[in-house]
Design a protein that fits this description.
RNA-binding, alpha+beta, about 425 residues, about 40% helix
RNA sequence: GGAGAUAUGGCACAAUCUGGUACUGCAGCGGACUCGAAAUCCGUCGAGCCGUCGUAUGGCGGUGUGCGGGUUCAAAUCCCGCUAUCUCCUCCA
């Protein structure tokens, strides 16, 4: 949620900033007109309430003196009725303003590239392992035997998309045998790395209520993409960002504890409503996938540097796994709803000859904190909204996909990255797994 | 899932039956005493949010007794719905 006072006071600047975020011109003006109407009514109704309070005090006093107050009471009956009507109108206006404001995306930070979509994204840096020449390297020249990860997985018998579809539907899968072990190794490795970097490991609820979904900005605008629990006003989380960030909703955090960093593995559920037909095969786009998430609560002056730290925490996982990646800064038109600034880490997927998003790290500044009422006491002793950040660290399924493709061998086996071997009993290779 | 109880300022609690300025203590803040501190005494303060005025410390008004409604000139108090917590039962991993 944006600060209404800011929008009011900086009408022109804000209109431009929102336009960059893809908000239609005139939206802000309409909202502020409603807000103006609302504030005028507040002044009126509050004046009447002040009168009513005064009259009530007089009636109470008269009754204590055993005097008759029926005249004053019947007079106030009219006022009470008027107040009630005005309060109703005010509540409607209030709801309209809130609803409109709740649909406005966050305003981008000043150094975010301005543009309509992903074409305006800017590459920050690029990394590839030094020993890369000896491995599959579609960056230079893809060997003829290069296979996409889903073929590797199916050939090895470690990924079963068919039975996933049979039992659940399209975009669900079973990991089998070494596939399941590899997935588990990957997220254990990630959690351990983040813990070393100071993140507190959490296991969260994976079903949350509507107010939590509102708090992080998924609701009301993106309700259609959520897996709702039937009849319960609860939702299967689309990301652990929701329960992790809402952990402190409504709370005031001790300033000396900031920044606070959380990490959690969770399944993530997405309807992928707008993605029909895209990435239909493999681990790239599923209705349910595992993700290790990072969340930070920071003082406003620290949130920019914390975003860089978090992005590096995500990138470091890929470096330790020996997977090539690059980091891009999303343009104003490509950022998510709640973000003020976003770095995407994209991993190399050789079979598709592209970098694919594997982590998205965002600073939402006070946008989520305003919705959730998370504050701290600043140096002047005043309550101030904290800044919240979130990032994937990383999408586990996509990491497995990247490992399968980048570490595949001509004979159909896959070499296990060294850092994962301790998590797999020292195993060095994925061979064909027989199963039933 | 069933029964009962509870929800009031940072904490602990009173007022709820009988509607009318939300009591008191601790903590906080200021002061006195003291070389200083503790103890004691005096004073003061009750979140947050919204509106408005002001350059500002802030003033004024509204709201605020778990949440949402209702009755009333007026609701902590009466009525309806909900949520959370506790105890007992039931069920379980």
């Amino acid at each position: 949620m944006l600060d209404l006072k800011y929008l009011r006071k900086n009408k022109e600047t804000a209109a431009k900033q929102l336009q960059d975020r893809g908000v239609e011109t005139g939206t802000l003006e309409a909202l502020l007109a409603k807000d103006e109407e609302r504030r005028t009514l507040i002044a009126k109704v509050e004046e009447m309430k002040a009168k009513r309070n005064e009259a009530s005090d007089k009636i109470a006093f008269a009754k204590r003196q055993k005097e008759d107050a029926s005249e004053a009471i019947s007079e106030m009956q009219k006022v009470a009725k008027e107040i009630k009507e005005m309060d109703q109108t005010l509540a409607d206006l209030d709801a309209e303003v809130k609803e409109a404001a709740a649909h406005l995306p966050n305003i981008a930070e000043a150094d975010v590239p301005v543009g309509p979509d992903e074409s305006a994204n800017v590459e920050m840096r690029k990394w590839e392992p030094t020993d890369y020449e000896g491995r599959v390297h579609a960056l230079t020249e893809a060997p003829a035997w290069l296979k996409p990860h889903y073929e590797i997985g199916e050939d090895l018998g470690i990924l079963d998309f068919e039975r996933g579809a049979k039992v659940s539907g399209a975009r669900f899968l079973y990991y089998v045998g070494d596939g399941a072990r590899l997935e588990r190794a990957v997220y254990n490795f990630m959690l351990d790395e983040h813990r070393k970097e100071g993140y507190t490991e959490m296991i969260t609820p994976i079903v949350v209520n509507d107010s939590a979904m509102f708090g992080t900005g998924q609701y009301p605008k993106f309700k259609d993409d959520a897996y709702r629990v039937r009849d319960l006003d609860q939702t299967y989380i689309p990301t652990a960002e929701v329960p992790l960030t809402n952990y402190y909703s409504g709370e005031t955090l001790p300033a000396e504890d900031l920044p606070i960093s959380f990490t959690a593995l969770s399944p993530s559920f997405r309807k992928e409503a707008g993605a029909a037909g895209r990435d239909t095969r493999g681990l790239i786009r599923l209705h349910q996938f595992n993700k290790v998430e990072m969340v930070k609560f920071a003082k406003p002056e620290d949130s920019d540097s914390e975003l860089e730290i978090m992005t590096n925490n995500a990138a470091n996982i890929l470096e330790k796994l020996g997977l090539p990646y690059h980091i891009i800064t999303l343009s104003t038109g490509d950022m998510g709803f709640s973000a003020a600034k976003t770095h995407d880490v994209e991993v190399w997927i050789p079979a598709q000859n592209v970098y694919r998003e594997i982590s998205s790290c965002s600073n939402t500044r006070d946008f989520q904190a305003r919705r959730m009422h998370i504050t701290y006491r600043n140096d002047e002793g005043k309550l101030e909204l904290v800044h919240t950040l979130n990032g994937s660290g990383l999408a586990v399924g996509r990491t497995v996909a990247a490992i399968l493709e980048n570490y595949q061998n001509e004979d159909g086996t896959v070499t296990i990255p060294e850092v994962l071997r301790p998590y797999m009993g020292g195993q060095e290779k994925l061979n064909k797994t027989p199963h039933h």
